[in-house]
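Researcher: Re-running this chain for the archive, since the previous output was lost when a drive failed. Same request as before.
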Amino acid sequence: MLYNNTKKFHLTFFSLVSSLVLLLSFFSSCTGVINTVDPDGGTSNDAETSEDALAEDVEVTPDTSTNPCESIDCGVHGSCIVAGESPVCDCDEGYRPEGLSCVEEDPVDPCEGVTCGSNAHCEEGLCVCDEGYEGNPETGCTSILTEEEMARTELIDIARAELGYCEGSDDRPYMQWQPGLWCYDFVAWVYDECSYSLPSPLSLPKYYINDLPAGWLPKPGDLIKFNIQHYGMVEDVSPDGETIYTIEGNVNSCVTTRTVSQSSLEYYGYLESHF
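Model: Regenerated structure tokens:
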């Protein structure tokens, strides 16, 4: 009886010890920490020891990947950005990427597509008259007239306004001074009506037809003396100077225009000497 009880006790104790060992093993596997007794009587942490050994055995490889924009300088007018896997320059307004830098965009010509009139050109997007010309540059500019040219133009305008007036049916001042002989009085009156202070037509210097300066041509407003006792005014002249277009008074008692040849003239009274 005693023997059986003793055997039972031993079996029970052995079971308890076995269970305790299994429990400790399970706990160690969960925590990764196993304390062991070292020869000096202390304890050591098996987990720490294992991590240290692992750190010694495993070589840590540094991250060698780099930013593609790391060494790119797009300049002061842009910055580098990554597009896909490549660096590109993102440029400020007015600049464009060229390679891996930002360059100024080509300037836009403000005159591109601008059409100006004759004797005019474009400047900064606007039409302006060429030097020596005036007027509307979009439709066309005309030559700036000198004082002499403006006086001659005014003389012709005044004379043309009298075309068609006739003695007997019209009462014009130049017809009253010498009735029936007012051809010169007509020219003198036109000179007086001009806003420019002009001398008397008869006081103008003269170029006689048989002694004209080489290359000289009469101009609008010059006095004409015919081979007969008759006067008129130059309206225009042909390029060769042989054909003269005139405005005359007292031709069949009227103010009219005519075309005459230079051979029918005695001299010109020329205005340029006054200016």
